[in-house]
Amino acid sequence: MERDEFFTTEEKELLFSLYRKLLQLTGETLRKGDCKKLKTHLVNSIQNNHVQRDTFGLNPLIKDMQTAVIVTEEIGMKRASIIGIMLHESVRNGACTTEEVQYSFGEDVAGIIRGLIRVNELYAKSPAIESENFRNLLLSFAEDMRVILIMIADRVNIMRQIKDSNNDEARRQVANEAAYLYAPLAHKLGLYKLKSELEDLSLKYTEKEVYYHIKDKLNETKASRDKYIAAFIAPLQRKLAEAGLLFHIKGRTKSIHSIYQKMKKQKCPFEGVYDLFAIRIILNSKVNIEKQECWQAYSIVTDMYQPNPKRLRDWLSVPKSNGYESLHITVMGPESKWVEVQIRTERMDDIAERGLAAHWRYKGVKGENGLDEWLTSVREALENSDSNGLEAMDQFKLDLYEDEVFVFTPKGDLFKLGKGATVLDFAFHIHSKVGCKCIGAKVNGKNVQLKQVLNSGDQVEIITSNMQTPKQDWLNIVTTSKARTKIRQALKEIVARQYAFAKETIERKFKNRKIEYDEAIMMRLIKRLGFKTVTDFYQSIADETLDVNEIIDKYLEQQKRENDTHEDVTYRSAESYNLQQIQSDEIIRSKEDVLVIDQNLKGLDFKLARCCNPIYGDDVFGFVSVSGGIKIHRCDCPNATQLRERFGYRIVKARWAGKSQGTQYPITLRVVGHDDIGIVTNITSIISKENDISLRSIGIDSHDGLFSGTLTIMVGDTGRLETLIKKLRTVKGVKQISRN
Asked: How far is 36 from 34, CA to CA, in rounded Å?
């Protein structure tokens, strides 16, 4: 039969003992032929050397049987879970297939085995087991919550068996995983007994000195603690009995791990922890009056001992999401010591020890009938967060399942993405530079495209190329807001670079052909060519859909047309003076420089920009032109924002200095109002009366009783200009005056 050398004498005895116990625990749920078929599978696996001892030298068959006993006794699971536990190693090692298991034992067992194998594969794939992402991925991978319960039981069993192991490193790793992964899960599921055992054993293996220090202290104080508990309980028992309640009372010393957490939290030695134990009053009550009797017991306790109202925990009226029900109160006992008292019924106590399995057992669920309902409740408990503020659960929040996927890098790092995320989403999730250069990926070793949708557990290797650049249609591939934002940002930067390149190209061509570049004329040309934005115009040059030389020719035509028009105006009327014919540098220059540029430099060659016509007193800045000279713009110039964004390196500071003496600047005012009799005369009259202000041209367009016009005046500074505008606003019929 099986290889004799595979079992030691002690293991053989243990094997038959466990086998008998399992039969006793699960006999009523097993089907005819289950035992025979299971034995055949296991014997075949052993004979063909498919089953091997683990890192600690534990016999896998015995270990699985011990785990099966735990899930049966402690959690209440039956046939499918036990067979799944016993056969998953055989399937994982190739001794049999899930199809064979499904044929022999049913889909229920095969599903549990698939879940256990998938979870084991995760461990092999990821070194990032400590991350919260891994805990969430573990739950999403398991699918059937029985897999999680089996894993908790298996970890409890391993922790019990490795106390004498010489492999300290492996034992420490197993203990750490128990603390940050399995104990929080056990707590969430209401398996408090298993949770406490996991925490205590983890502390024992990871911080041996601390564990034994607390254990020795507990042993030293046991006699005095027992004496105190007896003195505390005695009067309570009499009062409760007199009230006609059926009950029993026990004192429970808190777990070593719990005491250690209190020592750390309160920053005190062992002697400073006052609540080393709790008194538990367990009532034998009928379901319909159990709350009433719990509150009756509470009243008796608080009548005898002074309660601390801040420490009342009422999980009787509103039970925890994992089914836990109890009343907790801290009272002042003899010798002025605070004592925690827990009041609950037999049913509540069973639920507190065994979790949701007991909860459903008390609802009339027997065997595995109704297990689906129980597992649904388990999942709900996992998804709903407790409000009791325990530290363990603060670090273990579940926000996943259907809405998230978890994927690995080739190195085993784990990342969380929204469901439906693509390869391109993942690339941008890693880094925007990786995303911008992404040309595809290898998912689980196979080449895939950018639009490939990822699934939980996929191992993804991003493939990049320095020749790649983001494309507009990438926005249709990605699903995450992060990737979409990064792509838009990258596209905007590409456009900005192309814009700058195209503009520099035009200005360089102007300089080569010795043509003065005037931005105002260029803006009017761009508008005449039908471009909605300047960006579109320069993009067309970058795309080579527009020829730079043709643009320059059209620019010269535009410049000639504007100059010719101005000459016509001058010829028609001496009063309509064409201000554009006066050269800006002739107007600005006077005996003294009144403009200081950059670091207090004077005497530099500069011109006033025609697009905004700055005057003395305006907030201004300088812009270094292609020709090397400096053009002075108003800070509120229509082109200022664009110049700063695109050519910030060519911006220089500029400010007015001294006083404006004898220098005048051309200003164009736009006037809108009602066409009242004499309005033009009134406007020109006010201007003519102002000192150091002269009217150079005026153009009025009247239509249907409304008029709009432009006034070109010469003024010395912004102060005089503002005074003039205020006076013009008082003219009857004038509704609006603005400076162009």
From this structure: 6
